[in-house]
Each structure stands twice: as structure tokens, then as C-alpha cells.
Amino acid sequence: MSTYEVIPMMYNSREQINAIILLEQQCKQLDSIHLKADLDHISKKDGDHALLCYRDGNLVGLLSWYPSDGVIGNINAIVHPHERRQGVFRRLLKFATAEMKIAGIRQLSYRVPNNLPSGLGTVQSLEAVHDRSEYAMQLVNEAFSAVHSSDLTLSVAEDQDFEFMITCSAQAFGNSEEWTRNYFTETDEPSRVTYIAWKNELPVGLVRINVINETTAFIHNFCILPVYQGKRLGRTVLGALVELLMKQHYTVIRLSVVTDNDRALNLYRSVGFEVQSEYQYFSGSL
């Protein structure tokens, strides 16, 4: 009788990485959906946590998670189409939640591709509540067009910029300063770089980069102080950042945006980003 085995992923295991790539290919072939294991995130040192489920020596499931603010565990999972409804995801989730409880996680966020009914059914069976929908976008280099401004500059954030980061992000996104302070503290890691946008030597916004690998960068936490919004600064700042990243030899530049944020969506498209896929996010208790 076949048995399932759940083991932690070793970020530098070529055998496990090859098995994950094969699992992605199998899902794409059988589902006609490109399920992503976020291999860039789980195959680097100090990257996302990942658990693998094997059956008879074959990888049949994967679950990865990372804490975004020290409280929420963000979950992504892949299960082989022939192994669904066999308890693979719940086995992985059981091991993952045990890890997350030790890490102080109290809430879960599930990411599900918009066109995967089995995934949507699973999170609903867990009584998770729909939170938002997001587009995953990627820069198409041929379409990139920067808008230059002599009075606007970007600089890497320094220690003295921390309070501005909290104020700007909290005001722009509507979160409390306490939550924002904790978020920036929890995500202060070598792979993330924060840039401050300056206009006429005054700080007007910020944007963060998560360096995935030598060629891939993910843009997030892009915001302009509300008092400066509506002045076309967003496109100028974003264009300057993309130009900077391209000079740093990043060939894959990605970001995500909630689907009902037409203003941001149009901004990103105007700089040369295109929608690659859509995801649904659900919130649940640990």
C-alpha cells in the first residue's frame, strides 16, 4: 500500500529542485494551468519555508509559506492533478501550521489561481474568507518608457528614513503606524532594498525591491504620500526605478496589483507592465 511522506525542502538540493520543476510541468500539461511553486523564493538561502510530499518516491505536492508581518502566514501550494482529493494538501498544511505556530503566526492567507476550481473549493472547505484578487504583472522591456524629471531622485533608504517610511506607507495604504512599523521591522532583510523618492530635496514616496536572484526583482510597497498624489509623480518614480533596475542588469521585473485598483493598473501598464496571471487570496485562522 502506497504511503505519503512529508519532508522539509533543502534550498540547495538539485534533486528536489528538479522534482519541483517536473511537478510544475505535469500540472501545466494536465491542467492547462501554469501553477507556480515560486521556485525562486524557496530555492534561495533564507527564502520561503517549503514542505514536500512524496508518494512512492515521486513528488506529488508542495506547500510553501512566508510571514509577511510576523502574524500572517502566506501560503502557496501545488498538488499533482492525479493526487488531489487524497489529503495531500491537508497533510502538508498540518506540518506547515505546526511550524507557523512556533513562529508566532496566528492567521493564514491562501493564494489560489483564479482558474483552478479545485483550489478554490479547497480553501472554501477550510472556511477561509475571500480577501482580494490580484494580477501578477511583468515588465515587457520593449514597451518600457521612462519619464525623466530633473527635480526627482531615488536613493537607498538609510536609518534616518525609517520614520518617514512608516508615515508614508501608513498614510498611503491606510494601515496603522503600529502595524506598519512591525511590518518594516519583520521584513528588514538583505534581499529587500527600500528606495526613497525625493522631489526638490523633500521625501515624497517610497518603493521596495525584493531581490529574488541575480536577474529577477519584485517591486512592492510602492506608494506616494497622499499630499503629493495626483501630481503625476507615480509614473515618474516608477519609471526611474525600472530604469535603475535595468541598469543593474535585472532582466525580469515583476509586481502585483489588486484587480479593482484601476488607477494603479493603468499606471503600471503605462510604464510597460503586462498582466501574466490572476490570483484569488483567502484569509483563514491558523
Automatic annotation (TrEMBL):
InterPro entries: Acyl_CoA_acyltransferase, Bact_Acetyltransf, GNAT_dom. PROSITE patterns: GNAT. Residues 7-142, 152-286 form the N-acetyltransferase domain. It comes from the Bacteria. One of its GO terms (molecular function) is acyltransferase activity, transferring groups other than amino-acyl groups. The keyword Protein biosynthesis does not apply. Keywords: Acyltransferase, Transferase. It comes from Paenibacillus taichungensis. Signal peptide: none annotated. Transmembrane segments: none annotated. Gene3D superfamilies: 3.40.630.30. This is N-acetyltransferase domain-containing protein. PANTHER family: AMINOALKYLPHOSPHONATE N-ACETYLTRANSFERASE-RELATED-RELATED. Pfam families: Acetyltransf_1 (PF00583).
